[in-house]
Every structure is written in structure tokens, then in C-alpha cells.
Here is the input.
Amino acid sequence: MRELPTLDEIIETFELLGDWEERFGYIIDLGKRLPPMPESERTDDARVHGCQAQVWLRLEREGGGSDRLRIRAISDAHIVNGLIAIVMSMYNGRTAAEAMAVDARGILERLELDAHLSGTRRNGLEAMIRRIRALAVEMEAGR
Here is the structure.
């Protein structure tokens, strides 16, 4: 399995791709790179409500006592897995405080995802981002 690209690499690739058919193909390819999430972790407390597809998301600290965050997530829909990969590139490796300061809307606008996703996909993407921010707030409070 190939490693997920950085946010800068995703933005650069989006700019190089000619049309939205190619960009959606790239998003699906990103989703295929997600690490698996065991069925045992796909519980209701990990479920992101507000998504049309089923999405399970967990936010944890990186190993070794780090205060850096790591998202683990998966969906039952290919395109949503690709969107998860983009969201992971926005938040993974940041502290909780840094995660809360991410301009997710600005990034999505730069990628033009806000204009090219269906309303239900946009709502699901926003639900994932809200969930990550809420979990980051909890982690910051519980330091």
C-alpha cells in the first residue's frame, strides 16, 4: 500500500489534472491508499453521523507520548475514502491546537471540492471535519 501524499502534494496534483473526471479518479485512488480499519473498531461511537455513506473515524495521539494527532478512518464508499484521505492530509501530524486552527473551508475551496461535490457529499465532508475538531477540543481539554 502506498503512503498517503501530503496536502501540498494533493493540491499540486489537483492543479496538474485537466478536468474533474481525472480529479475524481485521483480522489478514488487516494481512498485506495487508506490503511484498513478492523471491523472491531467500526463501532457506533466511531461513526460519523451526517454522512450519506457509512464513515468510521477515530482520532488518537501518535505513539511515543507525542501530542501530535493521527486520524484513522474508513468508509464503505470509494469516493468518500478519497475524501477521508484529503481530510487526513489536513489534520494528521498536527497538535490539537493546530488542528482547531486549520482553515478547512479555505483548503476545500482551493481544491474546488465545495463546487464539485454533491450536497450530500459536502455535508458528509463537513460532518467529518466537525467531528475531528470536536475530538481535538476534547483531547486538548484532557491533555
About this structure: The mean pLDDT is 92.
